[in-house]
Amino acid sequence: MTDTIEITLPEKFTYDDYAWFFEASHRAMTQTDRVELNCCRVSYLDSAALGMIAYLHKQLKARGSKELIITQPTGYCEEIFQIANMYTHYVKKDSPSVH
Fold first, then answer.
1. Is domain 5-93 classified as CATH 3.20.20.370?
2. pLDDT tens profile 37-50
3. What are the residue boundaries of the STAS domain, all occurrences included (predicted)?
């Protein structure tokens, strides 16, 4: 089993990405205990996207204490995740290593 699978979210992450995200997240769940969502390109996401992320978290937990990590969130993405309490309830924010 792979340590981490990274899914890079598109610039505009919306309901239109459901099929793609469902496939990528399902594949990741079967291969790892830790899924990272790379948000470096996200300039827009809608409530359906937040719902898809929350659902992925639920599915990972159902498979046994698997982690969902957010990496490289854009300022926009960071603000939306804070407002929607995503860090409190669903995802962890990756902490950059201090050297």
1. no
2. 999 999 999 999 99
3. 1-99
